[in-house]
Specification:
By secondary structure, the protein is α+β, with helices and mostly antiparallel strands. The chain has one domain: P-loop containing nucleotide triphosphate hydrolases (Rossmann fold, 3-Layer(aba) Sandwich), CATH 3.40.50. 24% of the residues lie in helices and 38% in strands. Strands 2-1-3-4-5-6 form a six-stranded antiparallel sheet, covered by helices on one side. The longest helix has 13 residues. It starts with a strand and ends in an 8-residue tail after the last helix.
Length: 140
């Protein structure tokens, strides 16, 4: 899997963040509290709906009513987009696939999108977290 872009809106400390990833290795650097870990958590949330907060509502930036994370990635020569949105009381998930120059809806629903991502990437959220990064506070 190659992550191409990430859009984060009202997710933890990220009000409106857009990150485009170049081919190769990406390094996220910044000071304490800059939101580096939140970027990685946003990726995990977008793909697998996994998060470290005790309650999903805690992902929404304080003072905001809704958050969203959209990730675009390429795997097996195909490009996909996953959008997850959350309000304090409801959630929405949509997965699209690129056909030519446009994205077409592939599947919707939290569980359905998560299962499709797991099938495409041949891993679940736990394996992704363990293979991709060490979470804050896990290094002794």
């Amino acid at each position: 899997m190659i992550i191409e872009s990430l859009h984060i809106n009202n997710f933890k400390s990220h009000r409106n963040t857009h990150i485009g990833f170049d081919t190769g290795i990406s390094i996220i650097i910044g000071g304490n509290g800059a939101g580096k870990s939140s970027i990685l958590e946003a990726v995990s949330f977008a793909l697998f709906k996994q998060y470290t907060s005790k309650r999903i509502e805690q992902l929404i930036t304080i003072g905001q009513k809704r958050m969203s994370v959209e990730i675009q990635f390429n795997t097996n020569g195909r490009t996909y987009r996953v959008l997850r949105e959350r309000t304090r009381t409801s959630s929405k998930a949509i997965m699209k696939i690129k056909e030519g120059e446009r994205f077409q809806s592939l599947i919707s629903g939290d569980k359905q999108v998560t299962l499709e991502v797991q099938n495409l990437l041949e891993m679940d959220g736990d394996l992704f977290l363990n293979a991709v990064y060490v979470r804050q506070g896990e290094i002794a």
